[in-house]
Amino acid sequence: MLPDLELLVRLQELDNRVTELTREISALPKHITEIEKKLDSHTRKLEADRAALAANQTDRKKTEGEIQLQEQKISKLRGQMMDAKTNEQYRAFQNEIEFCEKEIRRLEDHILALMGESEPLDKNVKATELALKQEKAHVEGEKQQAMARTAEDQKALDLLRHERAQIVSRLNPNICRQYERIRKGRHGLAIAEAVDGRCSACHIAIRLQFLQDVKKGDQVMTCESCSRILYYNPPAQFEDLTGESASAPIPS
Length: 252
Description:
Helix Hairpins
């Protein structure tokens, strides 16, 4: 095979791997962003649960204060009732005391309702705190793995680019420009193997005489259909039991 063709085949392999690694390196930060967004949503849920629990406790404390005020009011009314001069005044104080007692019962019912609500809220907060702690540890682990993977990929990418630069320096400049032009116009794939009489990229059958010229490998030839550079890789021979190479038997 023409040395430039061999270099082109290797160059295409390198470029394919560079594309894969570049895509992987760019995808890792996006993956981290996605899991961090999920973590943020759970953090907001925890904040909402804490706010609901705090509001419940504030309401309960406020209601308890209102009960205390009503009790103080009752105590004051009873003292005033003892000084009532007429039955009408006495009944007025008594009615107001009954109203205060009724208000206390209403407030106590409200406290009972708040207590019933606070228990599941408290459980939610504790469960969410635990889940969030575990998820934070998981996210941190993923971030560390992503950073390590990125470092490995970047190191591999640097080696590939170094080898690529060496190959480009050895290539015929005109052939190199042809390769780059085809690669740009064919979504990164400039080289195709001739397999079973077809181009492995576009799968169109190759003319017999043209295929024979491709098999010679003494010049750079492009597919007549997709314009990619074609190369032929002859089938490997196998060794018989004596260790000597032999061709595959011809069927009778």
